[in-house]
Amino acid sequence: MNTESKSPWWAGALAGVLAAAAGVATGTAVAALLNGVPSPIESVGNRAIDLAPPMLKDFAVEQFGTNDKPVLIGGVVATLALLAAVAGIIGRTRPAIATAGVAVIGLIAVAAAAVDRTATASRALTLVPSLLTVAVSLAALAILLVTLRRTREAAPAGLLRRRDFLKAVIGVGALVVVGGVVNSLYGTAAAVASRAGIRLPKPAVAAPPVPAGTQVDVTGISPYVTANRDFYRVDTALRIPDVPAEGWNLRIHGMVDNEVNLSFRDLLDMPLAEHRITLTCVSNEVGGPYVGNAVWTGVLVKDLLEQAGVKSGADAVKSTSADKWTAGTPLEALTDDRSSMVAIGMNGEPLPLAHGFPARLVVPGLYGYVSATKWLTDLEVTRFADFKAYWTTREYDAEAPIKFSSRIDVPKSFQTFPADRVRVGGVAWAQTVGIEQVEVRVDKGPWQAAKLGTEDTVETWRQWSWQWDDATPGNHTLTVRATTKDGDTQTSDRASIRPNGTTGWHSVQFRVE
Ligand SMILES: Nc1nc2c(c(=O)[nH]1)N[C@H]1C(S)=C(S)[C@@H](COP(=O)(O)O)O[C@H]1N2
Ligand SMILES: [Mo]
Asked: Could you confirm whether the keyword Transmembrane helix appears in this record (predicted)?
């Protein structure tokens, strides 16, 4: 084929990208309308998450934090766009090869959908969006390539044909917009409506008011109770599972005398308890943001397990979510005197969707990955020897109590203070044990006792403050360390996130003027 009759490469690339976009838009819109069916991009993303080596996940959390999901989706979309552009460029001269290429890319999405653990619909239904994506992409590619070729062949009347290509481009663009809008409107519509209709009853056992002096007076310190919108979010869910309370069921089974099934209504009718509990993520770096304190409303797990009757020999509970994520929790942590609960409320509201609506587990003293299952649907009483949970198949320990730690909230990095007002503070936590002392030091100076806020409970973090009375101008480093009521003091040895959480001291640089 001679080059003169070839369309420019960018027109081919555009045709390829638009064809893929049309397919993806269709698949995405249709997925949103089908209950429990992930979109093709999500399924590919989910596969990437589940296949990612633990090291890569550590890197992603470190680099992108809570933005790891948009970054992943962006990566999938960019890769797809690149491949589609290449297919389109080739398609100008070799349409058969371009078609085969797009079909192969599409089949990867179909395969990802076939094994997507987050799908709750039937397998057949789960394949519909990706199959549609392939079909629409191929059809759109064929149309765009033909239009493109005609545009070239009709060179004298090129203007007219160019208009055809433009029309095709606009048509496909419109499809993309419609797909996006439908998805954003219907993605979690059922859960949103369900949550809006829920009134939490007054708890039978209300949390006592926060004691005076718990919140210390330091400008810029994180609030003692973390607002829902500020509460950290960590999970593997690319799309928040759409789980309306109506139809939700919690199954308690395994090594029990009688299987128990509870509806959301059943939970509401049980005596509800309210407890402040500080959650912590194993991925929290020393001084990091993945820790938060909220008032949780729910039913104590020990009451539910008592109803089921735990058989002897069991030592664990495997919890599963609507998106088929799993955690393994020591039975003891769910039955001793801590306030482990199936929570349905967070800070006086039904659980926000991102935090597990309609119900989740909350267990004081254990990292979230071994205890805090959101969108909870299943509790299986079992033995650690008999199962592995999501993160324990990925190089994390099966048992993971929270390592006690402390954090400087003020100063922020490189904050400047006037010499007569160097007032600093932060939080320290040792869930189920309690904080005995917090010390700070400036540069390599002596450790000095910080002033502790009033203790709320041993299941929550504790604030601290310190004032540097004879502050010297210049650049300084503030370091903090905590001591628990068991008499253990934080080690300066740095441990990494994997396999069971970080250790080390938090330091922040600041300036006095
Ligand atoms: N279904 C589900 N539940 C989950 C997770 C998850 O990936 N999927 N992540 C856990 C982890 S690692 C943590 S730290 C907590 C975080 O809870 P939050 O997002 O409400 O702060 O949820 C836990 N529950
Ligand atoms: Mo976590």
From this structure: yes
Supply the Cα-derived Rg of the chain in whole angstroms.
Answer: 28
DSSP letter string, 444-467: T---EEPEEPPP--TTS-EEEEEE
Question: Is the pTM here over 0.85, yes or no?
Answer: yes
Which atom belonging to ligand 1 lies closest to the Cα atom of 367?
14
- Angle, helices 95-114 vs 123-153, to 10°: value is 160
- Written out in words, the top-level CATH class of the domain with range 405-512 is mainly beta
Is 510 close to ligand 1, i.e. is its CB under 6 Å away? no
3-class DSSP state for residue 211? coil
Which conformational region is residue 87 in: left (phi greater than 0), alpha (psi within -120 to 50 degrees), or beta? alpha
Cα 65 to Cα 285: distance, rounded to the nearest angstrom = 11
Q: Do strands 506-512 and 415-417 pair parallel, antiparallel, or not at all (unpaired)?
A: parallel
Average pLDDT, the chain: 93
* Predicted pLDDT of residue 5: 62
Instruction: Output the CA–CA distances (angstroms, integers) from residue 9 to 16, 85, 91, 179, 403, in the order listed.
Output: 11, 9, 10, 27, 57
Q: Which two tokens stand for residue 392?
A: 């324990």
Q: Is 373 in the pocket of ligand 1 (CB under 6 A)?
A: yes
Q: Which helix (H) or strand (E) holds 208?
A: none
* Ligand 1 touching residue 506 (CB < 6 A): no
Second-level CATH architecture of 228-393:
Alpha-Beta Complex (3.90)
Domain with CATH 2.60.40.650 in the chain: 405-512
CB neighbour class for 131 (10 Å; exposed up to 12, middle 13-18, buried from 19): middle
- In the numeric block, which tokens belong to residue 116? 């997507």
